[in-house]
Write a structure and sequence with these properties.
Chain A contains 9 helices and 21 strands. With 355 residues, chain A is of the alpha+beta class. Chain B has 2 domains: 230 residues, MetI-like (MetI-like fold, Orthogonal Bundle), CATH 1.10.3720.10; 244 residues, MetI-like (MetI-like fold). Chain B has 20 helices and no strands. In chain B, α1 packs across α12. Classes of the chains: A alpha+beta (355), B mainly alpha (499).
Chain lengths: 355, 499
């Protein structure tokens, strides 16, 4: 296993820049998620790391070995980068055992013990070894693909949206098995995904990619609580974003005067107009009381384990609140809104000034 | 590498057409006027045109009607009918026509030719139309029924427009095959361009007359091919790329069940039972006269030639098919289309061109196996390209990349990933070429080395000498060898509009 360092990486296809100035460091043995909407360049980044494409500029370093950039180009097959593609990509003409042992040296390929060991590692029954890929479920195919990638003990494992084709229940289970197998081998892994819940729940660090640039890289908790900007904030989770006036150490907005923290720790906001971010689970609802702003319930999305309540504030602003438990108001009710914890204040971007 | 080989393949495929074109330029305008604008050519044109139009219309009606009954009505034993309706393809048209003319010597008329070629060729329309019916979303028909349309109105206003591409494609295929048909029409003594070219060639070896007739025939084929390209460019294959659709509820025939069964039975009887029974009868006659050893050695020669041609043609198809998928672009399309264009040229023209070219340029190759194999390759390349191409399409470059990421080198990937993935497609392509060569008559007649007889040519010389009994065993072997092709076709019915 080795670390991965990507420096100032750029790639364009024709006249279209796909990646610009990407810096990324993945420590040895850690699990990093590359999170971004489709078309943000995350798959291209993956292909540059794996060696299927060459960067226009910048370097890719595995451990202390430069594999791309500064005039060097190490072929994909000499990089030792394992790949788990979107739909598994199992060789259809080989059995499960044939797939898993594909990357092993010739002498080890016939060793059934190694295949059983790898099947066990990804939580599959050794009896599956003689099946053909099409006889497996989607989740099983993904696990076999991971076992195949791990078999030659690669320095890095890349997972390209491996769970996106699975249905919800299978996805949970497969994620668990993949996480367990990766941590058991101590593999350095990079997961590409557009699913923020997947990135936040699985990874040690999350790198957010947007328009070919890396906009933020940090651990999941920090990313959710202190996103770098409002776009990242709304991308990594549901958000309540309000106009506010910063004065006397409080953010005055349609939910009252709230305590706040500044989004960028160094660059202090001068006060005055700003945008504040709250997460829906920070909003608390109660029967109307005179001390707190009153809102009208427009609609309720009931999920069972919790509910999302859509509120209309007195100034016409619409926000959502996440409530757990059974005590959910009905549409048309008037409720008082109180806020738990602090809001996060962002500078008003000049272009998006409100009307 | 791939580009250079595909270029060579395309050049070979275009060789006969190029020869005809160069010859025409050589003859010049006055020569063309003298050789082409004469009553004999007009008569051949009229004969060919009315046969093509009549056959396409008859095949269209039979093909669509049969496909509707099998795919959309409640007629009993639909799967059995499906196989029986494709089965006539296993009987080569010239064998079919031999049986009919030996039964009814009065069939040497326009009506006789129309009957025989329609019975041989209607599966070419039935197959794509049946596949298109299967691809139609029954929800549309149900919606139309819900809007109060009758079954006939649904067929006319909903289904038929959607079948247009399959129907026209099948019709064009019938027309192209008919323009190239030699054996069946010669046997029925119905003169068209192909038979006239053959007779001229036999009479004057290589007169400019034969070559100019070939030029007119090529022009007709090119016109049809252009029509097909336009058709495919507009709409693509009917129903291609769709997944399995929910099967619809068949239309209940009620009291019409018996007449429908009768009609299907009559069609199958005429197209399949008559030739098979006729062959059986001549077999019984011929067992005494035929020499079993001759049949055996001829079968051996045919199988060897067919295997060689299959291997060669599939190998030649690989670079073109590979480029067409992996390096999509103008050049790849051009190379692929060249092979289709080359093989649209009738066998008689390919043979004529190769005879002349080999005598002039490479006399030591004249009437040798390599030239014969080259003719087979030119004629049947598209069959191999279409199947190999779909195999390449299915083996995504992803597998190659994964193998590389697992440390596998380029030759190692070729051996362990690419070839195993392509093997089934290449096998199917080779089988199609093999089966086509087994029943090839025209080019073999002109190009086979002296003393080399195949099943088709042995059958031909026996039946030309009116030894119907002696010809039968060769025909039976050809039918038995072609039968597997029916299975292949009934499984993958969408294939083959250009081949």
């Amino acid at each position: 296993m080795s670390s991965l360092t990507v420096e100032d990486l750029a790639k364009s296809f024709g006249a279209t820049p796909v990646l610009t100035g990407v810096d990324l460091h993945v420590p040895e043995g850690s699990f990093t998620a590359l999170l971004g909407p489709s078309g943000c360049g995350k798959t291209t980044l993956l292909r540059l790391i794996a060696g299927f494409e060459d960067p226009d500029s910048g370097t890719v370093v595995l451990g202390d070995r430069v594999v791309a950039g500064t005039g060097r180009r190490v072929a994909a097959r000499r990089r030792g980068v394992g790949l788990v593609p979107q739909e598994g990509g199992l060789f259809p003409h080989l059995t499960v055992a044939g797939n898993i042992s594909f990357g092993l040296p010739r002498r080890q390929r016939r060793d059934g013990g190694r295949v059983r060991e790898l099947l066990g590692l990804v939580g599959l029954d050794a009896a599956l070894a003689d099946r053909a890929p099409h006889q497996l479920s989607g989740g099983q195919q993904q696990r076999v693909a991971l076992a195949r990638a791990l078999a030659p003990e690669p320095s890095l494992v890349l997972l390209d949206e491996p769970f996106s084709s699975l249905d919800a229940a299978l996805r949970e289970e497969t994620r668990g098995a993949v996480s367990a197998a990766l941590s058991a081998t101590g593999a350095t892994a990079v997961l590409v995904t557009h699913d923020q819940a997947e990135a936040l729940s699985m990874a040690d660090q999350v790198a957010v990619l947007r328009g070919g640039r890396l906009v933020q890289i940090t651990d999941p908790r920090t990313l959710y609580r202190r996103p770098g900007d409002l776009d990242v904030a709304t991308f990594v989770g549901e958000a309540v974003v309000l106009d506010a006036d910063l004065r006397d150490g409080r953010a005055h907005c349609s939910l009252g005067a709230l305590p706040y923290e500044q989004a960028s720790p160094g660059g202090g906001l001068p006060g005055g107009r700003a945008r504040v971010l709250l997460r829906p689970e920070q909003l608390r609802l109660s029967g109307p009381v005179p001390t707190a702003p009153v809102a009208r319930v427009r609609s309720v999305d009931f999920f069972g384990h919790d509910s999302r309540v859509w509120l209309e504030l007195p100034d016409g602003e619409r926000v959502s609140a996440r409530l757990d438990g059974a005590d959910v108001p009905a549409a048309g009710d008037d409720v008082s809104v109180t806020v738990r914890g602090a809001a996060l204040a962002f500078a008003v971007e000049p272009v998006t000034g409100s009307a | 590498m791939a580009l250079a080989s595909a270029g060579c393949v395309a050049a070979l495929a275009l060789l006969p057409l190029g020869y005809i074109a160069a010859y025409t330029v050589d003859v010049g305008w006055s020569g063309i006027q003298e050789l082409v604008f004469r009553p004999r050519v007009a008569e051949l044109l009229w004969n060919t045109a009315r046969l093509v139009v009549g056959t396409v219309l008859c095949c269209g009606v039979l093909g669509v009607g049969a496909a509707w009954l099998v795919e959309r009505s409640s007629v009993p034993a639909r799967r059995v009918w499906h196989v029986l309706l494709i089965a006539p393809l296993a009987v080569p048209a010239f064998v079919n026509s031999y049986v009919w003319i030996s039964l009814l010597p009065g069939l040497d008329t326009y009506a006789g030719a129309l009957l025989v070629v329609t019975l041989s060729y209607f599966p070419f329309v039935y197959l794509p139309v049946a596949a298109a019916f299967r691809g139609l979303d029954p929800a549309l028909e149900e919606t139309a029924h819900g809007l109060g349309l009758s079954s006939w109105a649904v067929f006319r206003r909903v289904q038929l427009p959607q079948l247009r591409v399959a129907l026209l494609g099948g019709g064009l295929l019938v027309a192209l095959h008919l323009l190239a048909e030699f054996g069946a029409l010669q046997m029925l003594r119905y003169p068209t361009f192909t038979t006239a070219i053959y007779d001229q060639y036999r009479a004057t070896f290589n007169g400019p007359g034969a070559t100019m007739l070939a030029g007119v025939l090529c022009l007709l084929c090119l016109l049809l091919l252009l029509a097909e390209l336009r058709l495919r460019g507009d709409r693509g294959y009917a129903g291609s790329g769709r997944g399995a659709v929910r099967p619809g509820r068949p239309v209940a025939l009620g009291v019409m069940t018996a007449p429908a069964l009768l009609a299907l039975a009559a069609l199958v009887a005429l197209a399949l039972l008559v030739p098979l029974a006729g062959l059986g009868r001549w077999m019984a006659v011929g067992v005494s006269t035929a020499r079993g050893w001759d049949v055996l050695t001829t079968t051996g020669t045919t199988l060897t030639l067919a295997a060689g041609a299959a291997a060669l043609t599939t190998a030649m198809a690989l670079p073109t098919a590979w480029l067409a998928v992996r390096a999509r672009g103008r050049t790849a399309t051009l190379l692929e289309r060249s092979t289709y264009l080359g093989s649209a040229v009738p066998g008689i023209v390919v043979a004529l061109a190769l005879v002349t070219l080999s005598i002039r340029a490479t006399p030591w190759l004249y009437q040798t196996v390599p030239v014969l194999l080259a003719a087979y390759a030119i004629l049947f390349l598209p069959r191999a390209i279409v199947t190999v191409r779909s195999a390449v399409e299915q083996s995504s470059p992803l597998y190659d990349e994964i193998a590389a990421s697992l440390g596998s080198s380029t030759p190692d990937r070729l051996r362990r990933v690419t070839l195993p993935l392509l093997a089934p497609g290449m096998g199917a392509g080779a089988a199609l070429v093999f089966l086509a060569v087994v029943t090839e008559l025209t080019a073999t007649l002109l190009l086979a080395p002296t003393g080399t007889t195949t099943l088709a040519t042995a059958f031909w010389s026996a039946s030309s000498a009116l030894e119907y009994g002696g010809a039968a065993p060769y025909a039976v072997v050809m039918v038995l060898l072609s039968a597997p092709a029916t299975v292949l076709l009934s499984r993958d019915a969408r294939r083959g509009l250009t081949t």
